[in-house]
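My main concern about presentation is that the manuscript never shows what a single data entry looks like. For the editor and my fellow referees, an illustration may be useful. For illustration, here is how one protein appears when written out as sequence plus structure tokens:

***
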Amino acid sequence: MPSIIQSLLSATWFGYLARIVLTFMFWGSGLAKVIDFNGGVNDMAHFGLQPAALFNIATAATQLVGSLLIIFNKWTWLGAGALAVFTALTIPIAHPFWTMQEPMRTMEFHWVTEHISVIGALMVVAYASRPAPGSLSSCRRARQHRSSRSSMMPRRKCWRRTSRASGSRRSAPSSFRPIG
């Protein structure tokens, strides 16, 4: 990978920007439902969701909270999961292309395929946010699990980052060393 791309992907600001852009369709829609509450209620009523005001509040909350969890990379799996389930539920409610005549059928089908792609992107976000095997958070969970279970459970190999200045060179992944 070219070094400029690697430095871009390593930048903290780039991670925030990527998560903001990914969730734009959700937080933009959530803000619109809050700012134009009556318009959001009318949308819910249009799709037969009653009580419309309650569905508008729940939809806006799901979209905004899910987006914030992803943007700030806290409980990302929960935010991505909530938005993925929400997006999947919109398909039979708002885009039932199988019940429509052409040309609306094809247009709504394309909306559905885009929704499925967004669900896939949310799955990637959840997958990428998990602790890497051997990471400190992964090892802490393993230790807690071992202490709550039996001491007979096998130990996992965990790694701790070392300073490059220390000159420590091990066969572990770059700049990592085992934790006792």
Summary: Residues 168-178 have pLDDT under 50 and may be disordered. The radius of gyration is 22 Å.
